[in-house]
Design brief:
Layout: H1 2-22, H2 29-36, E1 42-46, E2 49-56, E3 65-68, H3 79-85, E4 91-94, H4 112-125, E5 131-136, H5 138-149, E6 154-160, H6 174-179, H7 184-187, H8 194-204, H9 213-223, H10 228-238, E7 255-260, H11 268-277, E8 281-286, H12 293-296, H13 298-311
Parallel strand pairs: 3-4, 3-5, 5-6, 6-7, 7-8
Antiparallel strand pairs: 1-2, 2-4
Helix pairs in contact: 3-13, 4-5, 8-9
Amino acid sequence: MKLISRIVTLLLVSILSFCALYWQSDRSVDELKSQWAQAPSVFIDVNGMQVHLRDQGPKSDPEPIVLIHGTSSSLHTWEGWSQALIDERRVIRFDLPGFGLTGPSPDNIYTIESYVEFIAATLAKLKVNKAILVGNSFGGYIAWATAVTHPELVTKLTLVDTSGSPFTPESMPIAFAAAKIPVVNKLMAKVTPRFAIEASVKNVYADDSKITEALIDQYYDLATVTGNRQALVERFRQAPPGPWADKIATISQPTLIIWGEQDKLIPIAIGEHFHREIANSQFVSFEHLGHIPHEEGPTETVNAFKAFLEGN
């Protein structure tokens, strides 16, 4: 009994020490604006939230390109694409509810339906009547669900390593795995080791050498915005892939599907499934890229997107 007691005591001390070492209080949007919301960032009111948004390029563009990031990401993930497009096209990107500097939803609702209506409300706020939607991972799920629900808003669609169909990951970012484990996900709302964020980013890249300290800082800082860590837990609980899967085949818009062949989170077989299900679709894969190929390899992926637009 004494041995068991000592083991339990040692375990508790270790847990408390870990928590003390990696405790990170929430940080306010105002605290992080100067670093992550520099021009051309603005904040607009949508559904009671101050949405962090960048709207660049010619406002006369009749079909703006809307770039939608994935889980635990932000509008910054599309920087390479934006810079390649804004000379000729209007490009709109924003932080989704629960992520980046937009922060958590005031009603704590993170269903796929709520995200679809957020996209529609944001476009209405910007007076955009129709757009080309591009989404990565969970952002891809939101993009194609919007195309299904509001077909009048979406003229073309690009899905980048997209979610929405059930899948079995080969490997999952540690932050995602922790968010799904009861008790642990409560702890992660305050205890967030930077090394866990770094490991998560490495998990979705194929080439670690492209990951800089500044990139890890970005992901870490935005993860610790007030309420975002709790929102991540709810996002996974409320919007799992699968419930809308039978609607994929109803997508009628011209669709480009882009995939990183080194994606360990959503296997390339899922991309091939989307291609088979969507009648009017094209499929392009990149053997040297991972789960966020638009961020890891912006030049080659945006060139594929440009070719798609020229052909459609």
